[in-house]
Specification:
The chain is of the alpha/beta class and 671 residues long. The protein is built from 17 helices and 25 strands.
């Protein structure tokens, strides 16, 4: 339906314009009935809907919905198409619930493993995060529902998130903390962008014209509206001038009155307010038009099946010395409260009121596995009882294999606070060590939203990371443990040996006023590679029950010129006896030797592709590179540039398992 929005805006009073720029309540925008302006309903995401039950007054009392794999799990899939499938399923549920915009995805960079909200974020790498966000947004919006990519920008901690300033160089901001947003905006045009609570270089994100207008709209050509995170407005008038369109959830009219007063006083132009209203109404009417079409039938049981299927693709086999997959008919003991009550989602605004949750124990029993169960330790506490420990150790000694289901209780990681350490509960570490001492076939299954220290890693046979796999995590774990599916996830973040090794160990989370990003561009694997530091498991790592052979890697030209492209090719073969999916990763290394202020990172991910292969099948993977892919950001030029000379194109299975290195010359200093 055609809507003459500028004409509508011309008919609005100043007070109505200001009112449309703030929420009517926790989840809705305001209406103007006399002009037929409808409301827009938003709902928390990003891995499922937390939609307020219309029969309840409490905004946190949500309807039943399906909990899909969290961002940490989706990232491990290295599969934008999987993110798209998850987004489409969430979009269908949103349409059935009458939701116009889903608040997600969350794409902030995992600067430290301690960030309490890492379970919701994708990766330490901006290329991976941006491509997955693009897939998710395209999936949701394919169903006629908008998204709100968040939290823009540089929000990588929970401590004093309402006010702390993320202080960093221009290069760090451009190379690490903005690209995921840029990729998603340019490739998928989310309907909205949500600004973060924090300050960036001492300016609140909600008041930063540089972020909200100069970069987001002018450089990236963003077409939707910008909304605040809930309560993220400091100075509402400054926000409107900077490009913050919608305040959520609203201030009961207080900030609306400030906007009106500022326009009347001449300190805020009415033209700036009109722009905000136009951007909001464009999306409000778009959502209303989409909602006019028949809504899909709500199929929570079907979506539960989808959630379980996706979880199988997201798990990462970190270590396997031969015990996995478990042999059918073998006598196995499951130990740990997570076997019966898995942790499958994070806490806070993304907490879903699920329809059901599969447990690994329940699924094993339903498939007739020879499995017994000893709790050993509870799922929700760091608690140890010696009698229960002795039962677990005894059962492990008598079994063919012991599978310990471990992880972080929700009290250890959630929105609202950061972790103080990287350890599992001591009761879990203790029992894992004792079981491994009596059972050589010990498997640890981890349910965690971010890396943990694994002091027992060398003593156990296998480690399977389920991350937070959604309500189907138990079905996925069962299929992977017993060989009904092949693990094909890869680590979207480095797992260090210890917290003290992490790039920002000395600076995270700061003093509450300033978070100093002194590590600069050396985030994640860039840091560990630069220091040639051993890690527990590297970025991109993940094992399989089959094998992959790389051959024939080549470039179609040995020189790249400004404005030109070069194509990299490699053939990958499944050399095993089981269907699998390999993630081919391409990294670029600057070998020019040219001086780089702020330092040269050893290599950076630039492309990746997940390919499904049957036993014996081979497929050629093709990547096209441009000068942007070999460039760094120059704060002196305020532009991207590349030095002339030699670069290396590295193709491999992980950041530390490179299978081919190809030399490339760049012929000009600027792109």
């Amino acid at each position: 339906m055609e809507h003459n929005i500028p004409e509508l805006v011309a008919q609005l009073t100043l007070e109505e314009k200001a009112g449309l720029c703030s929420g009517a309540d926790f989840w809705h925008t305001k209406t103007v009935e006399r002009l037929g302006i409808p409301t827009l309903m938003v709902s928390d995401g990003p891995h499922g809907l937390r939609t307020q039950d219309p029969e309840q007054d409490d905004p946190n009392h949500s309807r039943k919905a399906v909990c899909f794999p969290a961002g940490c799990s989706v990232a491990a899939s290295f599969d934008p198409d999987l993110a798209r499938r998850e987004g489409a399923a969430i979009g269908r549920e949103a349409r059935a619930f009458g939701v116009g915009v889903v608040l997600g995805p969350a794409v902030n960079i995992k600067r430290s493993p301690l960030c309490g909200r890492n379970f919701e974020y994708y990766s330490e790498d901006p290329v991976l995060a941006g491509e997955l966000a693009t897939g998710y947004i395209n999936g949701v919006q394919s169903q006629g529902v908008g998204t709100s990519i968040k939290h823009f920008a540089a929000n990588s901690q929970e401590y004093r998130r309402m006010s702390a300033s993320s202080d960093m160089t221009e290069r760090t901001l451009r190379e690490i903390y903005l690209p995921a947003f840029e990729t998603a905006v340019k490739k998928s045009q989310p309907w909205t962008v949500m600004c973060s609570y924090n300050r960036v270089n001492d300016v609140f994100a909600s008041e930063s014209r540089m972020l909200l207008t100069d970069i987001l709209r002018t450089e990236w050509n963003f077409k939707g509206f910008v909304m605040s995170d809930w309560g993220a407005v400091a100075d509402r008038v400054k926000g409107v001038a900077a490009g913050l369109d919608l305040e959520m959830p609203g201030s009961g009219g207080v900030n609306d009155a400030k906007i009106v007063a500022a326009v009347k006083a001449g300190t805020l132009s009415e033209a700036a307010l009109d722009k905000a209203v136009i951007r909001i109404l464009n999306i409000v009417f778009r959502a209303a038009d989409e909602a006019a079409a028949p809504a899909p039938e709500l199929d929570l049981k079907g979506d539960h099946t989808i959630a379980a299927e996706l979880a199988k693709e997201c798990a990462v086999l970190l270590q396997n010395r031969g015990v996995l997959p478990l042999k059918k008919g073998s006598k196995v003991v499951y130990i740990g409260g997570f076997a019966k009550t898995p942790r499958y989602q994070g806490g806070g605004s993304s907490h879903i009121n699920t329809i059901r949750v599969d447990s690994a124990l329940e699924m094993a029993e339903s498939h007739g596995r020879r499995v017994s169960y000893v709790e050993g330790f509870p799922a929700d506490l760091d608690q140890r009882e010696e009698e229960e420990f002795l039962r677990a150790v005894s059962a492990a000694a008598e079994a063919d294999a012991a599978v310990i289901f471990a992880g972080l209780p929700e009290s250890f990681e959630s929105e609202g606070f950061d972790r103080s350490h990287m350890r599992l509960p001591e009761s879990q570490n203790n029992l894992i060590a004792r079981v491994a001492a009596v059972q050589k076939n010990t498997v640890v299954v981890l349910h965690t939203g971010s890396p943990v220290e694994c002091p027992w890693a060398n003593d156990v046979n296998a480690v399977l990371c389920m991350y937070l796999g959604g309500e189907g995590v138990g079905a996925a774990a069962d299929a992977l443990l017993w060989g009904d599916a092949d693990p094909c996830g890869r680590l979207p973040e480095t797992w260090p040996l210890r917290l003290e090794d992490t790039p920002c160990y000395l600076d995270f989370p700061g003093d509450g006023v300033t978070a100093d990003y002194r590590e600069g561009v050396y985030v994640g694997y860039r840091w560990y590679d630069a220091r040639k530091m051993p890690v527990r498991w590297p970025f991109g790592h993940g094992l399989s029950y089959t094998g992959y052979v790389y051959r024939g890697a080549a470039l179609d030209a040995d020189t790249l010129t400004p404005g030109g492209t070069v194509t990299a090719r490699v053939t990958v073969k499944n050399s095993g006896a089981m269907r699998g999916a390999e993630v081919v990763q391409l990294y670029v290394a600057d070998a020019t030797g040219a001086p780089v202020p702020g330092g040269r990172v050893p290599q950076a991910l630039r492309r990746f592709a997940k390919i499904d292969l049957q036993p014996g099948e081979e497929r050629e993977v093709v990547f096209t590179l441009t000068p942007q892919d070999i460039s760094r950001y120059s704060p002196e030029l305020h532009a991207w540039c590349a030095a002339p000379g030699r670069y290396e194109i590295r193709i491999g299975h992980s950041s530390r398992d490179i299978r081919a290195v190809l030399a490339l010359q760049y012929a000009d200093a600027k792109i």
